[in-house]
């Protein structure tokens, strides 16, 4: 019999990921902080509704969480009415959110005390990858738990890699987020410089894409850069959270991350300017802002 799946957190990522599991034939029990969203999901897909993470855990063999940040996962898993209160012996918790590797390891040891196990399985590939079921999934935890979860991962993603023990998935995700943030920042500088120099942004992207400078950010964020419409996507405030995780890991492991620290500050300034809810490609606006907004020269 296929395992019963619980899914908590039906946001930009969680909703389409959960939908892909339903489409793959799994029975789902869902929960979301804003209950009406979970109700809409249940009406659309036939999933069962639960009123708390505890209730989800009571009726599931595998519980998946897709939540914004470490405190959210801590409260959903270990808080009052949380997953730990309802989790069955032998069950598996898979946290697919991007959170701190330290918090991950703490939660994994709490889960173990209940006779269950936990994987950290953060993803990359964005909302498009979530909808299309083509996410990259980087997984930390025990090999046998990874094999148990593999069919679920295959319903949601394409590149599925067991990268090491508990917390290792989150370490790889932090590395991923450094490269993405710094790439967006570099492309933004190139675009603002080019535009001020009188070259159309689409020409800059076309030319740079063909050489060593070419990267996926130019491809995936192209329309957002050109239209300057920054609907998320991936919210800048979440990327700020991720660079915080990377910097904390760098401190813990004694690794210097100087440019990550700089871009972290730019993302913070986006939040302060009220742009935190925009797509992370709106970093372009920070460079424009620092350069006088194009109107002051
Ligand atoms: N968006 C991307 O492109 C992307 C890509 C890769 C990884 N990620 C990571 O994936 C995670 C989720 O991102 P997202 O973009 O899907 O965020 P999101 O749109 O903000 O979704 C988060 C969902 O979690 C729910 N939630 C929050 N706290 C909860 C709680 N205590 N109990 C139950 N549900 C709760 C929210 O409910 P409400 O309806 O009440 O807000 C919301 O539906 C983050 O860690 C992010 O860094 C995102």
UniProtKB/TrEMBL annotation:
Pfam families listed in its UniProt record: NAD_binding_11, NAD_binding_2
Protein name (database record): 2-hydroxy-3-oxopropionate reductase
Record keywords: NAD, Oxidoreductase
PANTHER family: 3-HYDROXYISOBUTYRATE DEHYDROGENASE-LIKE 1, MITOCHONDRIAL-RELATED (PTHR43060)
Classification via InterPro entries: 3-OH-isobutyrate_DH-rel_CS (IPR002204), 6-PGluconate_DH-like_C_sf (IPR008927), 6PGD_dom2 (IPR013328), 6PGDH_NADP-bd (IPR006115), HIBADH-like_NADP-bd (IPR029154), HIBADH-related (IPR015815), NAD(P)-bd_dom_sf (IPR036291), Tartro_sem_red (IPR006398)
SUPFAM superfamilies, A to Z: 6-phosphogluconate dehydrogenase C-terminal domain-like, NAD(P)-binding Rossmann-fold domains
GO molecular function: 2-hydroxy-3-oxopropionate reductase activity; NAD binding; NADP binding
Family membership: Belongs to the HIBADH-related family.
UniProt-listed GO biological process terms: glyoxylate metabolic process; organic acid catabolic process
Species of the source: Rubrobacter xylanophilus
Domain 6-phosphogluconate dehydrogenase NADP-binding: 4-164
Coiled coil: none
Domain 3-hydroxyisobutyrate dehydrogenase-like NAD-binding: 167-287
Signal peptide residue numbers: none
Domain of life: Bacteria
Keyword Iron among UniProt keywords: no
């Amino acid at each position: 019999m296929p395992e019963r799946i619980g899914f908590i957190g039906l946001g930009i990522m969680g909703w389409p990921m959960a939908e892909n599991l339903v489409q793959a034939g799994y029975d789902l029990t869902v929960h979301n902080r804003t209950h009406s969203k979970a109700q809409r999901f249940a009406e659309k897909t036939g999933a069962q509704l639960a009123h708390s993470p505890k209730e989800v855990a009571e009726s599931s063999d595998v519980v998946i969480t897709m939540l914004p940040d470490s405190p959210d996962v801590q409260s959903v898993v270990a808080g009052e009415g949380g997953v730990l209160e309802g989790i069955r012996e032998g069950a598996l918790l898979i946290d697919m959110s991007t959170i701190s590797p330290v918090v991950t390891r703490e939660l994994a040891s709490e889960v173990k005390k209940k006779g269950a196990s936990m994987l950290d399985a953060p993803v990359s590939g964005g909302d498009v990858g979530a909808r299309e079921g083509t996410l990259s999934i980087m997984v930390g935890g025990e090999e046998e738990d990874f094999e148990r979860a593999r069919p679920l991962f295959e319903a949601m993603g394409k590149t599925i890699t067991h990268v090491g023990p508990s917390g290792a998935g989150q370490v790889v995700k932090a590395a991923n987020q450094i490269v993405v943030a710094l790439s967006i920042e570099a492309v933004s500088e190139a675009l603002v410089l080019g535009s001020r120099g009188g070259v159309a942004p689409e020409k800059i992207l076309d030319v740079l894409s063909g050489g060593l400078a070419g990267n996926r950010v130019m491809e995936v964020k192209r329309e957002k850069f050109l239209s300057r419409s920054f609907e998320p996507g991936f919210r800048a405030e979440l990327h700020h959270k991720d660079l915080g995780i990377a910097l904390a890991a760098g401190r813990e492991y004694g690794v210097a991350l100087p440019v990550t620290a700089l871009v972290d500050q730019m993302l913070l300034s986006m939040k302060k300017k009220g742009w935190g809810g925009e797509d992370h490609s709106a970093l372009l606006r920070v460079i424009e802002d620092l350069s006088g907004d194009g109107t002051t020269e």
